[in-house]
Design brief:
Blueprint (H helix, E strand, L loop, with lengths): L3 E4 L2 E4 L4 E7 L8 E7 L6 E7 L4 E3 L7 E6 L4 E6 L8 E8 L5 E2 L3 E6 L1
Parallel strand pairs: 2-11
Antiparallel strand pairs: 1-3, 3-8, 4-5, 4-9, 5-6, 7-8, 9-10, 9-11
Length: 115
């Protein structure tokens, strides 16, 4: 079955940057949408960013201007570049990919931003 393997999480100081990666076990052209969401301590799951098969992107208001989602079809990988990180960005970040029907999910990677 399809697997999404995440990497790039870690500990970073406020104002720093991280680049998360999500590598799929299949060609990602088959996915209508791919993206990232997160769950912070004491909060509901929040959609962070999405990228459509046509290349259009969407971002949560809380991260606009600080993050960029991109995809590399040749590498079957989606990235989330995060800059100017804040302590409130601390969360487990999850990758997902969806064809027309159904969805696949990553296992999550921890991002911790210290003040």
């Amino acid at each position: 079955q399809v697997q999404l393997v995440e990497s790039g999480g870690g500990l970073v100081q406020a104002g720093g940057s991280l680049r998360l990666s999500c590598a799929a076990s299949v060609s990602i052209f088959r996915f209508n949408i791919m993206g990232w969401y997160r769950r912070a301590p004491g909060k509901q799951r929040e959609l962070v960013a999405t990228i459509m098969d046509g290349g259009s992107t969407n971002y949560a208001d809380s991260v606009k201007g600080r993050v960029t989602i991109s995809r590399d079809n040749a590498k079957n990988t989606v990235y989330l570049q995060m800059n100017s990180l804040k302590p409130e960005d601390t969360a487990v970040y999850y990758c997902y990919a969806a064809p027309t029907y159904g969805a696949y999910w990553g296992q999550g990677t921890q991002v911790t931003v210290s003040s």
